[in-house]
Automatic annotation (TrEMBL):
Subcellular localization, as worded in the UniProt entry: Cytoplasm
The protein's Enzyme Commission number: 5.3.1.5
Organism encoding this protein: Flavobacterium hydrocarbonoxydans
Main location: cytoplasm
One Gene Ontology molecular-function label: xylose isomerase activity
Catalytic reaction annotation: alpha-D-xylose = alpha-D-xylulofuranose
Record-given protein name: Xylose isomerase
Subunit and partners: Homotetramer.
Gene Ontology annotations of biological process type: D-xylose metabolic process
Residues where Mg(2+) 2 binds: 273, 276, 312
Cofactor(s) required, per the database record: Mg(2+)
InterPro entries attached to this UniProt entry: Xyl_isomerase-like_sf, Xylose_isom_bac, Xylose_isomerase
Amino acid sequence: MGVSGAKEFYKGIGQINFEGKESDNPLAFRYYNPDQIVAGKTMREHFKFAISYWHSFGGHGSDLFGGGTRSFVWDEYKEPIRAAKNRADAAFEFISKMGFDYFCFHDFDLVQEGETFAQSELRLATMTDYLKEKKNATGIKALWGTANCFSHPRYMNGAATNPDFNIVARAGAQVKLALDATIALDGENFVIWGGREGYLSLLNTDMARELDHMAQFLTQVRDYGRQQGFKGGFLLEPKPMEPSKHQYDFDCATTIGFLREYGLEKDFKLNIEVNHATLAQHTFQHELEVAAKAGMLGSIDANRGDYHNGWDTAQFPNNIQEVTEAMLVFLKAGGVQGGGVNFDAKIRRNSTDIEDIFLAHIGGADIFARALLTADKIITSSPYESLRAQRYSSFDTGKGKEFEDGKLNLTDLYTIAKENGEIQLQSGKQELFENIINRYI
């Protein structure tokens, strides 16, 4: 899927192929076989793996205590368009060598923001045209686009929820351009992450008004997109805090409630990030289950946090237990609705070799593939499903079924309880369920 004649940025690294779990080649997939069929779909169709433009091609390894540890060839060019085109060349080379089909982007991942809004608009349009050429030449697609309405100082008090209308208007203009770029690139979804849509102190915050403004903003984004013929999904990405103390899209349940309150649930689904789930004191699988029950399991940002740190470390996924339990939910829900699995993850600050970014994505794809295979075996070959059904069997017939069907009232429950007398306890068999997971891993 490479582009002939383009400069090679990742020299010495060829196509990453599936070689099986016995392979000793670190630059090969052991479990991710894109053409292998699992539960009626190929792995490629299940996951639609995507590369995050920001971490993979813009992450220099800096942190709060020090500057970057990695430099990129494309950053050597001071002229923004030339630098951006070189970054795009590197990105499409990397995605091609990985054998993946998608990328995800913020507007100003594609090119440096201009000194004026007009300059930014021109730069983004130029790079959108260039990426269309890259997309057509390689077949690599945009899983989703979004707007970075959180990094610039103008958004220190939020974007859609900013108390200054002029900032809200600027955010709207920026989102319009990002959505235009996504549509031009045939993007399959458009994400809105409310990085600063929240508050630092409730003392100076009119929460009710800000939530109304946020809903109005999302309504306008939806309406504009549909008017432009965008048929893809709109996705909100929950996160409890960071950088705001309290963000309005705290977790899946909060976000779903917000969407339903304002009548947006038919157009918006959720983009669920693993590390955001754990920051909200939930498990990844819990958040998937909440979204799936609501019919809003749209897409996944795959990563993990450090279980000893209380912030968003965005490490590549490697916890087979966690991802296997998540894939049980994933398969039972029929997968994601319109989205895919984006590796919103960054290699560590001290990972400085050119191959490290490949090793990280190989490991991430393999852990998801291995977990998918394991979850499918658990569902199809173990007593897992029958044990779960057995726990709720009292609702399948008789009075239990009448309760589920809404045919009993509280007085009926009183009468049944009085007739039953004392009840024998039924074990939840949690240890057995855990042993089943471990057995099939």
